[in-house]
Amino acid sequence: MRKKLLFTLGILALYRLGVAVPTPGVDYGNVQQCIDTNSAESGPLQILNLFSGGALLQLSVFALGIMPYITASIMVQLLRVLIPRFEALQKEGPDGQAKLTQYTRYITVGFAALQSASYVTMARNGVFFPGCEAEIVPDQSWNTITTMVLTMTAGTVLIMWLGERITERGIGNGMSLLIFTSVASSFPGAIGTIWNSTDRVRNTIVILLVIFAVIAAVVYVEQSQRRIPVQYAKRMVGRRMLGGSSTYIPLKINMAGVIPVIFASSLLQLPYVIVQFAGDNPADWVIWLQNNVTRTDAPLHIAFYILLILFFAYFYTAITFNPTEVADNMKKYGGFVPGIRPGQPTADYLDYVLSRITAAGSLYLAIVALVPTMALVLLGLNTSIPLGGVTILILVGVGLDTVKRIQAQLEQRRYEGFLK
Questions:
Q1: Quick one: 274 and 387 in the same domain?
Q2: Same domain as 300, residue 418
Q3: What pLDDT band is residue 201 in, cutting at 50, 70 and 90?
Q4: What is the pTM of this model?
Q5: Of 161, 185, 209, which one is at a domain's C-terminal end?
Q6: Is 244 left (phi over 0), alpha (psi -120 to 50) or beta?
Q7: Which terminus, N or C, of the chain has the lesser number of Cβ atoms within 10 Å?
């Protein structure tokens, strides 16, 4: 266990080192000058910069972070519903999973190349740092641009490899821990920004109380389950009597995790990008977007945010949990829900329960995502400070998962486990 923990910490330290290494062709001094002027605080890439641990706005070799891999993983899960071949691979066991993982890697490389080319173009056009006149990429020749794109793409591949090494030889899920490290690295700076505000004592105390309250709510809900009882009938196999046991199907209140909040936040960045590319004389509809959608404290922005979270919560839950498949497997092995007939009635019952659980889970996600931001608005602070609900959800979720994995490994050797 000690070796695994040290190995995991070493990989995380190597990842944070790569965040500070600038990409060849980037004027690091000008980048720091633009960051120091606070011109990037309200930029369109705030959520992506958070997940990269600040590497994106610094245009480091790890600028893309782990987001291309996450996007590719989600796409492969979606393709399981659309492509029968992917669904067949999912059911083939370890061999099929290995093949799907290989497809995910290939898609990750494609996404990384596309995103790195887009980010280099945005950096050259001044979208990264609106209002900063310093030149981020002084040499804009094709050789320099190609080198930057290849370097960022290779950085993403290296991050993917580091995450897989943590999963195989370390503790916890490697990709989740890399995101945890990136998000956690923004906390000291955020607290420092609040402490340097006008009424710093009051603001710091209020924000810390809100954070602790949200953490308590996240822990409570993430640990909550709706347990559907399942009874297995007795059956004779040769001369042995099998079955007759009782178990349950654990349905989490928040089946979708943090994915709906990430998707909603990413989609709401698109209007800001449109406004930035509109030029000095924007059309009326662009001005309307700027006044009503791009501002995080605008009522329409908040309404869109809530609706997108609700939609993606239902959508992601629907593609990750198939009630019909679960009901068929139960029927195949002689299982049934007491009071519900096997087969389609069981699938309908599971869908009924899941839809109502998802309603509560999606509302919980929307509230958690908005409460810290609303607290910043009421205190008159900049809403771009990275203390939103997404940050807390990731930190608490990954922390709980890692503790459970450590507990499980320790219980294999010592019965008292990690937490006595």
A1: yes
A2: yes
A3: confident
A4: 0.79
A5: 185
A6: left
A7: C
